[in-house]
Structures are given as C-alpha cells and as structure tokens.
Amino acid sequence: MTEATQTPIAEQMLESFEKRLEYRKTHSAGPGEQYYCEIMKGYFERIVNAKAEGKTLVGISGAVPREVLFAMDLVPFFGENLSMLVSAQGKSVPFFGVGEGYGIPNEGCSLYRLELGL
Description:
By secondary structure, this protein is mainly α. It is built from 7 helices and 2 strands, in the order αααβαβααα. It has helices at about 5, 10-25, 30-50, 65-70, 80-90, 95-100, 110-115, and strands at about 55-60, 75-80. Strands 1-2 form a two-stranded parallel sheet. The longest helix has 19 residues, at about 30-50. It is globular, with a radius of gyration of 15 Å. It starts with a helix and ends with a helix.
C-alpha cells in the first residue's frame, strides 16, 4: 500500500502546506506566496477537522459562494482544486483507478475521474 492510500489525502495536503508555510517564513518569495500557503493551510485544516468538530463537509463547485456555507456552519470542499494539487505533487496515480471503478471511463475527464477517486 502506498503513502497516498495509507494517509488521507487531505491530511497529506495539510502537512504539505504547513511545511511550505514554515519554509516561506524563512525563504520569502514575497507576501503573496506566504499568504497563499496560509489560506491553503486553513482550508485543509477545516476539511481535516470537520468530522471531529461535528461539521458537515460539503462538496462544491467553483461557482458556489462559500460565505453562505460558512454561515450554515458547513465546511466547503472544492474537489477540482484537490485533484490539481494532488496531481502537481505526483500523488494522483493510485486514485485514477478508483475513479474509473466508480464509472468514469478512462476516456472521460481525468480531472473528474481523479476527483471521484480521491
């Protein structure tokens, strides 16, 4: 079993952004990069902690206003974003087959096949 299937992917992404943020605090690439890492760290913290906090995780598309979900005490989860991040880190391979097993054929959109596999 690979690391990608042993540790939940959201936890892997949280750890990755925690490390990137620590690195950016000592190796500045400008305030934008550090701010991005802070935003993404907070995003994955909400996802990872949702169940323990008794909150519902809600899959959304990019067009859904997150403020409405936060007001309802829900935790928004943007699957396409996760698919792109996982691919960029080279951790996507084990999840394509899972997505295909749920009915997204190999000829279908790889982004959505990966999202469903995750």
